[in-house]
Design a protein that fits this description.
The two termini are 40 Å apart. It is globular, with a radius of gyration of 20 Å. It has helices at residues 2-5, 7-27, 33-43, 51-70, 75-102, 125-146, 150-165, 168-178, 184-196, 199-204, 228-238. Helices cover 68% and strands 0% of the residues. By secondary structure, the chain is an all-alpha fold.
Length: 239
């Protein structure tokens, strides 16, 4: 009787916690880059930040969105990818403007040159946008053609997971080359966010269907998909 009397309080409270967890899932990934953005804007120096981090996250989240078309997952995770793509584009724009301003004798290089030696080191933000659109268009078209293939969709999901797992590599390589720890604060925060990702769907009352998912989310499925054992292994190694 007393428990029933508390339902009017518990139900809205649970809903509020669910909304809060969903909001943390959507925006939690971009929070570490806010101080990094402010620091670059204030100092007009982007040497401590590797733009290849943006490349990794753009590729991973574009693949994740394409995976959604083959196998729908929860909307907070989809919005998380969209917000992250916009954030990385903003970071790229700022870093490009700062680099061009500081290097007055910088030789003009563009995406249209198709020079692999200067890939992702272009002189204009529009070149990065062109590259992202080109990749999205090609990957989207291939996904459209192969959307009925379970193996292709699962491979797409695995590539999204694997790419995001490589997030720390560009920043670590840059810091090792420059013998510096600059930029590691945002990287550490983002890695912590990645480690906490398995907890986010559970907090929202959701079942994460890809990425760093909990092995128990696949319990009870009669026919596991081809890459679920890989995801379970990644999840076990991450938690």
């Amino acid at each position: 009787m007393e428990a029933q009397g508390l339902d009017w309080l518990l139900v809205p409270l649970q809903q509020l916690v669910s909304w809060g967890a969903a909001g943390a899932m959507v925006f939690g990934g971009v929070v570490p880059y806010i101080p990094q953005y402010q620091d670059i804007r204030r100092t007009q120096n982007a040497d401590g930040f590797s733009t290849y981090v943006c490349l990794v996250l753009l590729l991973a989240n574009i693949l994740r969105i394409l995976f959604w078309f083959g196998r729908h997952f929860e909307s907070p995770l989809l919005w998380q990818s969209i917000i992250m793509i916009l954030t990385m584009l903003l970071m790229l724009r700022l870093c490009t403007e700062v680099r061009v301003t500081n290097e007055l004798n910088l030789k003009r290089r563009s995406f249209a040159d198709f020079d692999l030696h200067h890939f992702w080191r272009w002189s204009s933000f529009s070149d990065y946008v062109q590259c992202v659109l080109a990749f999205s268009g090609v990957a989207g078209y291939v996904t459209y053609l192969c959307i009925d293939s379970t193996l292709f969709v699962e491979t797409l999901g695995f590539l999204a997971v694997f790419t995001e797992a490589m997030l720390g590599v560009p920043q670590l390589c840059r810091n090792h080359r420059h013998r510096s720890t600059e930029g590691m604060s945002s990287l550490s925060s983002d890695l912590i966010h990645q480690l906490l990702q398995p907890c986010e769907p559970a907090a929202c009352g959701l079942t994460c269907q890809f990425g760093f998912v909990s092995p128990c989310s696949h319990v009870g499925r009669e026919k596991p998909t081809p890459n679920q054992w890989i995801w379970d292994l990644l999840a076990s190694a991450t938690v």
